[in-house]
């Protein structure tokens, strides 16, 4: 089968490799669509980061580069391993792409398995990836999705789960006002989750295309250009002088972080969603004097079922966030290059490993 293999910094190769074999307790999935994540771009430009360097195998997967990329994907069940009796061949599914030690509690009451030692991700730390024609995954990480949800849209459920977990961590409730810093993929999807939960969303974003996209998608009530408008003053105007109840930092840009701290009301909540590759500064005096709660969030934990329900119920429409579809052979030139050099023009570019659907 064809697969995108990560060898190292700026070295991704489309190769023919053996299809994985089904083992007891696993599910074989024919991949329909796989999204290109910002993490994949970081691996390409600055890595290896999550990918175990060649000769240094990951302690759980036992694999090192080259590995197959891709962790945001949907597909169709192709084969069931022994002991898997609650799925059927032909079911539509998405994957919660974790690599976690077998002795970690990943049950429905767990709130921290995603923070366990040596955690990594399918498609980064080994165990196959969504940028291949087929993958075999442990049953625990496979989530069925209604066939009423198109498979291309289902591929966005993984990043949508990131947004859902961030919103859940914030404690925001219906009727409150949220300020989202940045309308890239995660910022836009965070806005979508907030809107689905009846939160009023204000987005701050430099790109006119991205501002218009969240407005057209109906996931933001207001979209502000911080180069032309004082975001803090505009938020205060829109909230009768109070400020935002919650804010989500989705850019890893210092001025955005500073703006969010200023725009929050006293006792507001700031959630850091983006991955920062450098040390950030925060005005702790303002945090103290406003009694702000500041927290971080990473990935998701038992978030997929509720996220899938939002999509299946129609409360979130993922179609507006799909901005491109390509084949595996165009991964770097058409996919990575666009997202690195013209990222304001795209939200989510999907890859069809088999070429079907293009």
TrEMBL record:
Cofactor(s) of this protein: Zn(2+)
Family matches, as InterPro entries: ADH-like_C, ADH-like_N, ADH_Zn_CS, ER, GroES-like_sf, NAD(P)-bd_dom_sf
CDD domains, per database record: butanediol_DH_like
Enoyl reductase (ER) domain span: 8-351
Gene3D superfamilies assigned: Medium-chain alcohol dehydrogenases, catalytic domain, NAD(P)-binding Rossmann-like Domain
Keyword Metal-binding found: yes
A Pfam family recorded for this sequence: ADH_zinc_N
GO molecular function, one term: zinc ion binding
Keyword check for Hydrolase: no
Keyword set, alphabetical order: Metal-binding, Oxidoreductase, Zinc
Superkingdom to which the source organism belongs: Bacteria
Classification via SMART domains: PKS_ER
Family per similarity comment: Belongs to the zinc-containing alcohol dehydrogenase family.
Protein name: 2,3-butanediol dehydrogenase
């Amino acid at each position: 089968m064809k697969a995108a293999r990560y060898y190292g910094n700026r070295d991704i190769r489309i190769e023919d490799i053996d299809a994985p074999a089904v083992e007891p307790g696993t599910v074989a999935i024919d991949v329909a669509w796989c999204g290109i994540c910002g993490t994949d771009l970081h691996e390409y430009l600055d890595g290896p980061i999550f990918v175990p360097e060649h000769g240094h195998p990951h302690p759980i997967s036992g694999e090192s580069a080259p590995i197959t990329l891709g962790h945001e994907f949907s597909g169709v069940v192709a084969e069931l391993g022994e002991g898997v009796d609650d799925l059927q061949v032909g079911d539509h599914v998405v994957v919660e792409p974790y690599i976690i030690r077998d002795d970690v509690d990943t049950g429905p009451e767990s709130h921290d398995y995603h923070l366990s030692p040596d955690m990594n991700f399918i498609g980064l730390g080994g165990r196959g990836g969504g940028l291949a024609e087929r993958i075999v995954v442990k049953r625990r990480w496979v989530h069925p999705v209604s066939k009423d949800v198109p498979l291309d849209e289902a591929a966005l459920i993984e990043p949508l789960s990131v947004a859902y977990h961030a919103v859940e961590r914030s404690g925001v409730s219906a009727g409150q006002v949220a300020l989202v810093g940045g309308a890239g993929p995660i910022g836009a999807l965070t806005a979508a989750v907030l809107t689905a939960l009846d939160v009023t969303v204000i987005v701050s974003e430099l790109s006119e295309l991205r501002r218009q996209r969240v407005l057209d998608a109906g996931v933001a009530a207001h979209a502000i250009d911080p180069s032309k408008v004082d975001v803090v003053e505009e938020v205060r105007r829109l909230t009768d002088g109070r400020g935002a109840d919650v804010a989500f930092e989705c850019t890893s840009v210092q001025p955005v972080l500073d703006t969010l701290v200023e725009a929050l009301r006293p006792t507001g909540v700031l959630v850091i969603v983006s991955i920062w590759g450098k040390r950030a500064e925060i005005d702790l005096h303002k945090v103290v004097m406003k009694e702000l709660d500041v927290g971080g969030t990473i990935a998701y934990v038992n978030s997929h079922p509720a996220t899938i329900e939002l999509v299946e119920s129609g409360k979130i429409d993922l179609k507006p966030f799909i901005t491109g579809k390509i084949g595996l052979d165009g991964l770097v030139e058409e996919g990575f290059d666009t997202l690195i050099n013209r990222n304001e023009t795209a939200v989510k570019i999907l890859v069809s490993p088999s070429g079907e659907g293009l």
